[in-house]
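go over this chain:
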Amino acid sequence: MPQCAPGSTSALREAVEDSAIPLETVAVTQCSQHLTPVSSRRAFFHRRKSKQSALEHRKVLGLSLGINVVLVSILCVMAIAWGTEKETVSVDICRTKDCLESAHRLISAVDEEVDPCEDFYQFACGNWMRGHIPDEREMIASQFSQAKKKIRTEVQDILESRGEPDDSLPVQQVRELYKACTATDAIESLGVSPLIDALEMLGLPGSLPSSNTTENFNLTKTLAMIQYHLTISDLIVTVGFGVHPQNESRKTLLLYPPRGPRVFIGLHGESVVGPDPQDFMKRKKRSASNFVEDELRYRSTAIETFETLRDGKQRIEVSELRAAAMKTLVLEAEISRKQDLSGLYRIMTLSELQNETVRHLQFLNSEDIRNQIDWELFVRTLLKDVGVVREEFWNPLLVKDSKYFQQLATILAKTKTESIQRLIWWKVVEHLMVFSTQALRRLRYMKAGDYRIVSRTDECLQVIDKTMPMAVAYKIATQPKMNHTRQRVGEMMSDVRAAFMSLVRKAKWMDKETTNHALSKVRAMRLVIAYPDFFVARGYIEDQYKGVTIRRGEYLKSVLSVFTAEANRVLGSLDSAIDFSFKEEQN
């Protein structure tokens, strides 16, 4: 079995023995920060039959190049210096606690009874796989899942710490948001009143819509405000950004159909994941009738729970709840069927989009133009609080699947306003349930197929990941040890690149042209280690969360403030050129 360069492993082992970490808990591996040149080809390519032509080798190169980079990276980190050449190297060994723990994790994963030239994966990971069998709640165990758990612990420590005097405002705010999320007593005491406030802010009634709630309903403004404050992606129309097809340096507003899972009342072939992971493995299917029944039960139960929390005295008949839930489901399915996933993008003025929908209704001999979306009003409402954005940046705009919007106009024209309002009301309630009382949160998780008992801490960590992840990342990135680690990783990757290029130059099975082509590809690779420099520049993180207000004891309002500030920041950049500085920095 190939051995490490002389003195390298023993040197690091001596460092462990001299450290405060018990030897039995730290196994060591690191031949060098620098790779030893390799001349032996006992591995895959060396075992190829000698009859293979140079042309066949060149075909293999394209696939093998990326694999070699990964393997060489592993070799560098694990410090397995392959080769028959015996040469002494100058070893710069990292002896910090983190380095020793990393060495322990890596060497303990290796199965030294396996010949790496026969089965490198089993050699590198064999012991790790034996020690990390997924439990009954896990679908898979991997180094990534282990790293995720470690990061989760670090993030939780940051959020639960007192903080430091020089913490940036977003870092202070993300801690306050986490505290507001974990303050379950305060959330329960408010009930659904924050949710009612959110509904009314969006132009929706605070209770289940009926024929009595449609008088002042403005479909266009409500849809625009939902996109601005919530950005719900599976409701009638979605807003985003696109690159202008005639000018790649320019952004343009993008309108497209709902992006959520398509809803069909018919043959339903989606798999169901239940509490038992075996359900996933068996790929169980629900019939159409079972799907409809499950969805109706979920929606009617959620509406009933909301109404009970809103007014414990008022009772709604089960039949009325099911009828309301069914109407939302039928309308959503009808809209969903009009989507064309292969629909093309078109540059259209707002008047062109409006006129196309009107002409489509006229073609169908439909004189009823109720519930139509006024597209100019929609965009102006969307940008109302953003500031000055010149019209040339949102008119014309990019439209995906313009045929969908024509067919949408037909559906809206023939549907009662009450039914449209109820569908929108339901989608908003469903979207915000996870930020409300425990009774509503549980229903939302059951809908997602997650029957496990999730701790409130885990719930709140997920919320932070969806709302203010960059604030936490900034705190981690600005820790003193991070910059040092980033530099060391950069040095390591430079060594990996140099060693790999050396291997390519010494390869006997590549002709000169192929060698030069391979080396040019390696030189063209650019490294981004941990984060770009601008991420930790003064003022950058503050700009990302400008306008955020975290209110103690007002959890849902705080979450909505984050969503709104993000929409304001992104929409406010509409008239600015696409920033290629990150790409240039890396090049």
Notes: The radius of gyration is 30 Å. Residues 480-506 form the longest helix (27 residues). Confidence is low (pLDDT under 50) at residues 1-89, 263-284, 582-587.
